[in-house]
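Model the whole thing, not chain by chain.
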Amino acid sequence: MSKRKKAIFVLVWLLCAAALLVSSLVIGGASPEESIKETMRDAVLHDTNKISLFGIMDVNPAVISAYTVTFILLIFAVFVRIFAVPKFKTIPGKFQILLEEAVGFFDNLAKGNSPHKNYFLGAYVFVAGAYICIGTLFELLGLQGITTSGRSITLPAPLSDINGAIAMGVTSYLIILSGGILGNGFKGVLSTLKEFSLPISMSFRLFGALLSGLLVTELVYYYVGLSFALPVVVGVMFTALHALIQTYVLTMLTAVFYGEVSEKTPKKEKIKTKKRRK
Amino acid sequence: MSLPLNINFQQILLHMFNLCLLFGGLYLLLYKPVKKFMDDRAAKYKYADDAANEKLLKAQEAEALAQQKLKDCEIKIEQDMAKSRADAEAEAESIIKDANNTKKQILAAAEEAALREKNRMINDAREEIAELAVKAAEKVISEKAEKKVKSDD
């Protein structure tokens, strides 16, 4: 492309962009059906917009998001199992390296933090990591759902709903509890119950982190004026980074606590203590 | 019972049910086969590594054994060489001793022969001298007798 043609292309491109920007600002959008207060409140509480779950019950949009994410992950897993895994080679290709890195990362995380019992933990943190990461990135797809009131809404990240975050936190806590029982029996249960604040902290950490991103994103998308260029930064900051950070934080915490409670406590020697008392 | 933040136990359970489904599916379809492949490959490499180490160990043992044998051979060679040297020296001494004896015998025989020759020559010379003396005496006597005859005449 010659310099002249290049200059003409850039000029036309900038003019088109400017024309679209000006027209969008001048014409304006349809007046929002919800006020910013309602939008924010709904983003936090999910009490306004409900979606029907196969006509059985009305649920928060995050439940639909969660099942959609699970569906996507399971379809991906089925394809991988059928088409990729049988073709695995000793010297891996790019896709195989990606899968092996993902599995190896969570497996090593489990082994590193819980050297005694880690097979089940490895599997759990892998699944939890995949769910949190893909679940958070899912928000970027902007899939639409129809609410019971007939309004179209963007499906949020599953964990931006407090119920999803609590489910994740409680499940992680139950897994830690199972590690305690497997490792130390009744003592393991006690040592796990000592950390009674763990499910709450895990749930609200996830919820808070994802909610903050969601609120900022909602705010940005609510106003037309903020919809230029800024969503790219916001999307990366609050979605892509949160996906990675929250995945790492929750899986790391689960692995650390699992390792702590499943570590066998040495039995105290009663005879020696008696002698010392004498 | 309404809880703050729109917490709903039914939806929590729905989320947990979803997690349960996801766990089972992802574990069976993705995690287990990939991990099995990785573990098998690690085991294969470990087996190969162990086999290589075992072979290396055996090679090192064989090398040590060969070195020991080489050392033993060198010691044996040195011992044999020392023994051979000692034997050769002993044999040389024996040969020298025999040669000396032979030399002495030859010298003694030569001396004896020379003495015998000397004595024989001396005896011959004596006999010759005696004959010459007799002949000289006979000549002197005959000359004297002739002179006497002549003078008598």
